[in-house]
Amino acid sequence: MKDLRGKVALITGGTKGIGYGIAQSLLTQGIHVAITSRTCEAAAEAAKKLNEFGNDSAHAIGLEADVRSILSQKKAVKKVIEEFGKLDIVIANAGLGHFGSVTDLTVEQWNETIETNLSGAFFTLKATVDEIIKSQGYYISISSLAGTNFFEGGSAYNASKFGVTGFTQAAMLDLRKYNVKVSTIMPGSVSTHFNGNEPSDKGAWKIQIEDIGELVVDLLKMHPRTLPSKIEVRPTVPPSAKN
Ligand SMILES: NC(=O)c1ccc[n+]([C@@H]2O[C@H](COP(=O)([O-])OP(=O)(O)OC[C@H]3O[C@@H](n4cnc5c(N)ncnc54)[C@H](OP(=O)(O)O)[C@@H]3O)[C@@H](O)[C@H]2O)c1
């Protein structure tokens, strides 16, 4: 995408954390942004704050849409088209994690993780694919390093993120014939509200949300002929690497 000004983006789960950081970066580039949330109030509040980052040519709207519902996501896409007339960029970001041994993990925790992280990413593409084929746009999923490295206590989260990585790579092969770009970003630790975390100075070694925003802008600006389809990104010096 040569000129990002005036493009339109939909980010699932943009009320805080990585989705919010990406929304800030896109608005700064003059891209209109719709963010979604499970609640109308959180979406509206975040959109209001985000509009401080917009400029005359770009603004944000907040929409209630649960990624676990294809119907809810289709309604959100309809509202995006009513507001902005098109859709160029889709970021399947919404996600959560339940961690613990398989001996303790409940069926409800398993289902919520898979439905949100994996089915959610599929429903996001399903609800937007006609629009991004029309605009020759870009779909980016936020997977995780947990989508390639498994760890103790990570069975549900690993299963969901390995799924997101595989799903996105296969979708890339399906959609490139339409000149639609598809990538998955696989971050290590990012300073967000994930899993009850409170961002603070203690997390200064982690990737910050604006760093992921910058990475997304770099991907969008890349020459149309070139596609980084799977991007691992990690803190340069995590505590485990210190002498
Ligand atoms: N933080 C990390 O270290 C890290 C590393 C790798 C990958 N990731 C991935 O990055 C993505 C964003 O996580 P984060 O770290 O930014 O977490 P976060 O700060 O907790 O933000 C999560 C966002 O997802 C939204 N969300 C959750 N369930 C949803 C649903 N069913 N429908 C719609 N929105 C929903 C939340 O919105 P509401 O609460 O307003 O509904 C919120 O905006 C996730 O996919 C996560 O797996 C995170």
- Examine the coordinates and then state which fold CATH places here, giving the name of the CATH topology: Rossmann fold
Evaluate the radius of gyration. Answer: 17 Å
Unique ligands: NADP nicotinamide-adenine-dinucleotide phosphate
Low-confidence stretches: none
Question: In DSSP terms, counting alpha (H) and pi (I) runs of 4 or more, how many helices?
Answer: 6
Overall pLDDT score: 96
Helix content: 40-55%
The CATH homologous superfamily name equals: NAD(P)-binding Rossmann-like Domain
Mass-distribution shape:
globular
| CATH architectural grouping | 3-Layer(aba) Sandwich
Largest sheet: 7 strands, parallel
Order of helices and strands: EHEHEHEHEHEHE
Let me know the number of strands: 7
SS class: alpha/beta
CATH class equals Alpha Beta
The amount of beta strand, in percent, is 5-15%
- What's the number of structural domains? 1
Strand order of the largest sheet: 3-2-1-4-5-6-7
InterPro entries: KR_dom, NAD(P)-bd_dom_sf, Sc_DH/Rdtase_CS, SDR_fam
Organism: Jejudonia soesokkakensis
Keywords: Aromatic hydrocarbons catabolism, NAD, Oxidoreductase
Family: Belongs to the short-chain dehydrogenases/reductases (SDR) family.
